[in-house]
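Quick one, tokens below:
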């Protein structure tokens, strides 16, 4: 059985790697270019903000994980010009949802930008916003972002949930990489990124409790470290996580795949099979997810630990 100390070691090493590479999350000159690659500019910064918030919420002041995450969250906020960049993005791309989705993590931490929220409220009230075509799991994320910012949700979250792969309780043998990432994000949006396990419906919680151990084993066997970390976060976000003994192999494999600095490759051989140096883009997301999963496993879905209203 994996001990809390071993899980903590994974989380602290991962968050230490993120701290050491925090400069790589800075927005480049192309951040406001409509033709720029959002996945290379805004997405990493948004993921840094969300994971930092979740780790901070899951832990207490004085804890190394908490204090590091708090510093990273505040750092990420400064990189956005304390929210000014979001306002600029929404003016340039008024029907793009990613500005709201990323801003929502900061808003949940008490970091607010009034002009952005005023413009977002105007856009969210339009028919164009409500009718934007999206994948069901992405729509669920937008709905949660609206809730976090304080905007009216444009659709029923339950309706969006039941249109997702996970919401339909599919045959477990149909699980593969794409559906795996879809289901993890459905759970993240449902639980407000691990903040409230009670929001997972009973039938979905039972389904995941039954099949997660097998899916974790298959990801570990296939060196799918990023997805493995996300599934471990899902396990920790459930009202009744699977027994620790069933998660031992996954945590041990994840720890073995980390390099000596705490970085975790998204896929492929871990530190014992590395043949070349991996760059930031190959490691940052999986390393964030390892820190996220560890924090939740150490007690992160206690609803009494709500976002701590950090100063803007």
């Amino acid at each position: 059985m994996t001990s809390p100390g071993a899980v903590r070691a994974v989380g602290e090493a991962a968050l230490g790697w993120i701290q050491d590479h925090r400069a790589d999350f800075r927005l480049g000159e192309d951040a406001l270019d409509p033709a720029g690659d959002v996945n290379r500019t805004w997405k990493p910064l948004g993921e840094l903000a969300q994971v930092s918030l979740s780790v901070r919420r899951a832990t207490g002041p004085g804890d190394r994980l908490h204090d590091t995450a708090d510093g990273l969250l505040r750092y990420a906020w400064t990189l956005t010009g304390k929210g000014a960049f979001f306002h600029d993005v929404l003016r340039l791309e008024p029907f793009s949802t990613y500005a709201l989705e990323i801003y929502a993590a900061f808003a949940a931490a008490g970091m607010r930008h009034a002009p952005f929220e005023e413009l977002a409220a105007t856009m969210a009230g339009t028919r164009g916003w409500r009718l934007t075509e999206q994948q069901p799991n992405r729509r669920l994320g937008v709905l949660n972002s609206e809730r976090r910012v304080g905007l009216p949700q444009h659709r029923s979250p339950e309706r969006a949930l039941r249109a997702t792969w996970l919401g339909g309780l599919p045959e477990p043998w149909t699980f593969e990489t794409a559906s795996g990432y879809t289901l993890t994000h459905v759970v993240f949006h449902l639980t407000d990124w691990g903040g409230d396990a009670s929001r997972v419906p009973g039938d979905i919680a039972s389904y995941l409790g039954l099949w997660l151990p097998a899916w974790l084993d298959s990801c570990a066997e296939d060196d799918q470290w990023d997805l493995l970390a996300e599934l471990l976060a899902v396990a920790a976000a459930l009202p009744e996580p699977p027994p620790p003994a069933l998660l031992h192999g996954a945590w041990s494999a994840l720890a073995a795949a980390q390099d000596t600095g705490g970085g975790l490759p998204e896929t492929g051989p871990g530190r014992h099979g590395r043949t070349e140096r991996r760059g930031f883009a190959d490691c940052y997301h999986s390393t964030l997810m390892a820190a996220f999963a560890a924090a939740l496993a150490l007690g992160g879905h206690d609803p009494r630990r709500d976002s701590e209203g950090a100063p803007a």
